[in-house]
Amino acid sequence: MKKVVIIGVLIVVLIIGASFVVRMQNSVDETENTTEYMEFSGNGVTLSAPGDWVSAESESNTTLLAVADPNSKDSSGFSNVNINIEKKNSSNSLDYEFKSNYNSLSRNSDYDILYEGNVTIFGTNGVEAGYTTNIDGVAKQHKAIWFKKDSDLYVILCTAPQSEFTTLEPTFDLIIKSIQIS
Q1: What H or E segment, with its residue span, contains residue 170?
Q2: DSSP per position, 106-165
Q3: Do the Cβ atoms of 155 and 85 come closer than 8 Å?
């Protein structure tokens, strides 16, 4: 009789536990699907970013389009979470431009190169680098994807505080997948 009661209690606990897990998974799925995305366009680039993001100004003259999370502003009013799409005309190879840039950065103690590797983006070969910066005591992490289209060199640069980068990377990846360049 004790075995039957124990088995009955275990079955009830398992059923309750399983329904809790299913409800939690449904809640996570609903949260992921409720994020609304908004389209941003400029200078031949279109992308979709979370609906609360805004178009941003960039200090770089080669930026085609920049978007940022306005809820991540630092004390100077600049967003710490952003994506910049840059373009420059280059007769050099992608490999040459990439290596030249990161060789230069690696000589600066404020930069730490985490990885470099090959990627495929928009059906073409590209290269990617991850690195951190620590400038004026502010630690940020960056992911840069480089590729060429005709004679133009493009860089997609994702930036966030180092402590938040891993959490934000799925958002960056969704934005990158949405990019269209005309």
Answers
A1: helix 165-178
A2: HTSTTEEEEEEEEEEETTEEEEEEEEEEEETTEEEEEEEEEEEETTEEEEEEEEEETTTH
A3: yes
Total Cβ atoms within 10 A of residue 127: 20
Contact 51, 35 (CB under 8 A): yes
Say if CB 88 and CB 105 are below 8 A apart: no
pTM, two decimals, is 0.80
Residue 1 confidence (pLDDT): 52
- CA 10, CA 19: separation in Å to the nearest integer? 14
Q: What is the DSSP string of 48-69?
A: EEETT-EE---S-TTEEEEEE-
Sequence-separated contacts (24+) of 97-105 with Cβ below 8 Å: 97/146, 97/153, 98/127, 98/129, 98/146, 102/129, 102/131, 105/131
* Amino acid letter, residue 143: K
How far is it, in rounded angstroms, from Cα 130 to Cα 114? 5
Q: What local confidence, expressed as pLDDT, does residue 22 receive?
A: 35
How confident is the chain (182 residues) per 10-residue block, as mean pLDDT?
A: 45 42 40 76 96 92 96 87 95 94 92 96 95 93 95 96 97 96 92
